[in-house]
Automatic annotation (TrEMBL):
Gene3D superfamilies: 3.30.1460.20. Functions as actin-binding component of the Arp2/3 complex which is involved in regulation of actin polymerization and together with an activating nucleation-promoting factor (NPF) mediates the formation of branched actin networks. Component of the Arp2/3 complex. One of its GO terms (cellular component) is Arp2/3 protein complex. It comes from the Eukaryota. The lineage of its organism: Eukaryota, Metazoa, Spiralia, Lophotrochozoa, Platyhelminthes. InterPro entries: ARPC2, ARPC2/4. It holds the Pfam family P34-Arc. This is Arp2/3 complex 34 kDa subunit. Its main location: cytoplasm. GO terms for biological process: actin filament polymerization; Arp2/3 complex-mediated actin nucleation. Keywords: Actin-binding, Cytoplasm, Cytoskeleton. It is found in: Cytoplasm, Cytoskeleton. GO terms for molecular function: actin filament binding; structural constituent of cytoskeleton.
Length: 312
């Protein structure tokens, strides 16, 4: 992305990211200035939580006071005046989306820290519509910060897989005391979202993370933001992996059953030499399979394969 050559080639690239985020990387011909812009459909919602202050702290002079037309934030780099550690500045530019989200979490984290000694402090809440039909809710109280994601499953099968996957998160708390509590709630929003625009439905689920003071301490705050702002992407990625794994197992088991069935078919020459008619029984009471019967057996093997997948 960043060059140090006398004659820098012109660049005009657009890169799509998750949640409808769009990056624009532009460098005009015969220019040393490289601009990296990001477009967020929900930027107006996160800007009110002090996003400009967080970005100014992270990027300093690289942040343009006014973003390019049609974008939310623009960074500007002079390719002939770059620091020695190019990898560090490139990595920081790649974290632009993360740092935009950071303003939301830092706002609520700071509120919890400043009111930790006031048990009666009023809870504050923010809403970010980071996708057209999915939302992130953040609530800060004196003793914790709660982050709730609403997600909509488009495939009925994903509802089941998502439930299995997210229930594993709830089990982690039993094995690791330091892990945040995770609550999975299908269909209806949790009580914290009463009075909001939270939706209900058979294909909707809510995932709640309860972050305690140790999770938002200065030592772990950055890591917490790194992980939680990608929760929705992380979950749906693993649901797709689960579906791919199930398909692989089903195909493999079906292939094994078909091999067994093929070995069970009587030899055609042997049957002809015995002068058996189709459907006649031999001395042992066995019977040659008609085409329709073979189809039934094959379908049965597929069903058995799926059930074995569920039990294993």
């Amino acid at each position: 992305m960043l060059f140090r050559f006398p004659a820098v080639p012109d660049i005009a690239e657009k890169v799509s990211d998750f949640d409808g985020v769009l990056y624009s990387i532009v460098q005009e011909p015969d220019s040393n200035i490289l601009t990296v812009s990001i477009s967020l459909t929900f930027y107006a919602e996160i800007e009110k939580f002090g996003d400009s202050k967080v970005l100014a702290r992270e990027y300093g002079s690289y942040l343009k006071p006014r973003a390019k037309s049609g974008t939310s934030v623009t960074l500007e780099f002079d390719c002939k005046r770059l620091p020695d550690d190019l990898e560090a500045i490139a990595t920081k530019a790649a974290l632009l989306r993360r740092n935009c989200f950071a303003s939301v979490f830092e706002h609520f984290f700071d509120y919890q820290v400043s009111n930790a000694s006031s048990p009666t402090a009023k809870a504050i809440q923010g809403t970010i519509h980071f996708r057209p039909d999915e939302t992130m809710f953040v609530q800060a109280m004196s003793d914790r910060v709660t982050v709730i994601f609403s997600t909509r499953f488009k495939d009925p099968g994903d509802v089941v897989l998502g439930k299995v996957f997210l229930q594993e998160f709830t089990e982690v708390k039993r094995r690791y005391d330091g892990a945040p509590q995770v609550i999975y709630q299908p269909r209806d929003p949790p009580k914290e979202l009463r009075g909001t625009d939270a939706a209900s439905g058979e294909n909707i689920a809510y995932i709640t993370f309860v972050l305690l003071p140790r999770h938002i301490s200065p030592q772990f705050r950055a890591k917490t933001i790194d992980l939680i702002h990608l929760m929705r992407t992380y979950m749906h990625y693993h649901i797709k992996c689960m579906k791919a794994y199930l398909q692989m197992r089903m195909r493999a088991k079906t292939g094994e059953f078909l091999k067994v069935l093929n070995r069970a078919y009587p030899d055609a020459d042997a049957v002809a030499s015995r002068n058996y008619a189709v459907g006649d029984s031999d001395a042992l009471g066995t019977q040659t399979l008609r085409p329709k019967a073979r189809l039934v057996v094959n379908l049965f093997s597929v069903a058995v394969t799926f059930m074995l997948m569920l039990t294993n």
